[in-house]
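>> received
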Amino acid sequence: MNIVYMHTHDSGRYWSPYGHALPTPNIQAFAEGGATLFRHAYCAGPTCSPSRAALLTGMTPHRAGMQGLAHMGWQLRDYDRHLAQFLGANGFHTALCGIQHEAPDYRMLGYDNILGSQEFDMGDTVHSMESFDHTNTDAACAFLVQQQGNATPFFLSLGLFNTHREFPKAREDNGILADYLAPPAPLYDNDINRRDYADYIASVKVVDDCFGKLLQTLERTGLAQDTLVVMTTDHGIAFPKMKCTLRDTGIGVALLIRLPGGAKQRRATDALVSHLDVFPTLCDAAGIMPPDWLEGTSLMPVMTGSTDSVRREIFAEVTYHAAYEPKRCIRTDRYKLIRRYDYHNGIVPANIDDCTSKDFLMDHGYDGRVLAREYLFDLWLDPFERENRALDSDYHLIYNDLSGRLEEWMVETDDPLINHGARVPKPAGARTIKLSQPSPRVADFEE
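>> returned
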């Protein structure tokens, strides 16, 4: 069995199979054509490197060692525990194409082949990222063509830069009309936010076009019959109140998995699942004994319909992003408890990607808001997480239960917040932006 893992930046669940009117026909066809659509999948950390590290090691970010961004100085504790190295040790030929964000240098990951380009211009993303993704997708497709008739199974990771900011610009000639859009639910409906969202739609169109190329190549080469395909993203979309938050808009992710050979599998499921479950699922599907460090559980029983659920809760975390903002959460089917550990009780602007949607909020006092230390949400009654029940006596038992389970998980996984309190130390050489800075792009770092 071969494995193709295709992943994007910052897409959340904003693809058409999740009910959004977006130009993703290839992802939609993939969902309808035999993949299992996980409606309640969550990342383990709603920032780029921690999320990817968790999925690709099967461990929580703080246990894997990735509590911040790889390009800001964080690394995995043990790169031998990366999925690529594990599969390579179990007979797979491994290939990386495009984006990775688990190491400061892609050569640390141990892939057998590096395809396409790892070089891109972060300062000119509007013009370079569309061609970067298409060029790398072409390289991945060429690799697939070369694998025809090869008896050695392969693992291909194709990472797209889209839908990371800066987005390509929406144009009327590609059918994206800002006047007739609704911005994402946490944002006010005005022209500024509609136009910002229109650019996101232009970016997601790039993703879908690249995914379509990949799927067509798998079909044309006959590899689809022997290849498991995972399509996902790292965390919520790069808008205020989404990415880098522990709300569902931050931790909720698209996750679609198709088993090889048209195997009969469930089309959509409401099972509560974590990115931590992907690694053990791949082991289960490939018939490989899972390593003992994994924290997740296989999703195969859900996909084949033998059970409706495999876990009672998921956990997610933020420690460092551009700036320090430690917080943890536990989410069950119905309830979520978010706990903030920072001494800073306000918005951290540097942890919100620069954009016109952010400018609108900041211009109208968003950065002056005071945040609670804890939030408890009844998601069945309040799916948009507006009513904090942490101090509500009617939810006292729920609060105690979730609080105890969260603390137990932190102890079991050796969370550094247990030992260091409100300030987890950075690794040597790591950089973080001062809390007072309004932008993640300002090179004003803490001592």
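>> The CA atoms of residues 95 and 113 lie 5 Å apart.
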